[in-house]
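Structure Section — protein described below
Tokens — whole-number codes for backbone shape
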Amino acid sequence: MNRDLLRDLYAAVCAALLVLTAVLVGTAIQHRDGSLRVGWPPLLASWDPHVGPGTPASVVVAAAVVAYGPSLAARLPWRPLLLAVWGTGTAWTWSLALVDGWHRGVAEQLTTRNEYLPAVGRFHDIPAALRDFTRHILIDSPDNWGAHVAGHPPGATLTFVLLDRIGLGGGGWAGTWCITVGTTAAVAVLVAVRTLADESLARRAAPFLVLAPAAVWVGTSADGYFAAVAAWAVALLALAVRGVRPGLNGFCSGLLFGLTVYLSYGLTLMVVVAGAVVWAGSSRRRPLVFALAGFVVVPAVFTALGFEWWEGYRILVTRYYQGAGGVRPYGYWVWANLACTVLIVGPATVAGVRRAVPRRHPAPPNRGDRRLGVLVTAALLALLVADLSGMSKAETERIWLPFAVWLLPACAFLTGARGWLVGQAVLALLVNHLLLTGW
């Protein structure tokens, strides 16, 4: 066994020990005083071994990707590969969601009192609802919003309002939207990696983007949808700074970045990933001018309609500490959040990140490897800043999906892809069949 592989295994074992420690310590704290506010620390889940309609399909998809994924990724033409990644990733995500059945796994996920759909009926007059939005954030305010509506800018809720307006109302359509859009994030990541680094790295990463344990939470949480919007913003920026239709791609990237920060306050940290893209791209300023022009559109529209982002965030901080955020202990979650991250990215990604993070090399890495390493490191840095902020105590298995998808391409640096893919699949299948997750 070579030294690099041994170090990869050490990294994976250390990550497993972190998860085990988070489970044991978290269970003790939760039994003592209930302050963690989760059923199966560090995840918002409960112990409930079960199988369901999606079980056979999930096993078949996992086996197929392990057996054929690396070889197909190496030889398929590029565009068919992107379609195959999306199609197979969608099948993987749907099958995992349906392990819990249609109603519990998909249709009811976004309909609970803390989710988005109960608020849809209050947006009959959208401008009036936006003008009044911040008045209902605090828990002690009249007709206060549910936790997820209050905890995000109104762009998140408006997504489901607009779906309802075009006849796609209800939990089934909302869940279908989140899975359909959320699974495109893998395609966006591949486009960015190919554009900034090289195609061979993107191809090696492809099976890992398909078989990511994160799919457990992409189906079905709105954060999977947020992850895809942010991922396409980054991918289009990568194309722009590398000279591919810099005006159009730059402007569209800016539009999506503007939408991203109106879907989730915390996704302002995607600026770190965007900075890595600009660094790896070029020194040309023209794409950035177009990106900035696109970026201001969404904030301008929301501000004109009466919603002030900074005011919403200021009030949200107070709301956060009025609820579970004020009870959950920072001293536990500041490291247990990282255990959640291990569970969504899997052991292969942990090993890949070990190789990707810049360090002393016996020989200088090639340019593509270095650029991918910078992209992965930027995503890791954004995630760590979010962690230290204290505004993401628990539930990071869904909240951090937009950052986690940019850690997954680090798997391109690994050797023995099929063995690592088995580990990824087994983790996802165990989590989904042993636990009843909150999403």
The chain has a mean pLDDT of 96. The first strand starts at residue 45 and ends at 47. The CA atoms of residues 68 and 418 lie 9 Å apart.
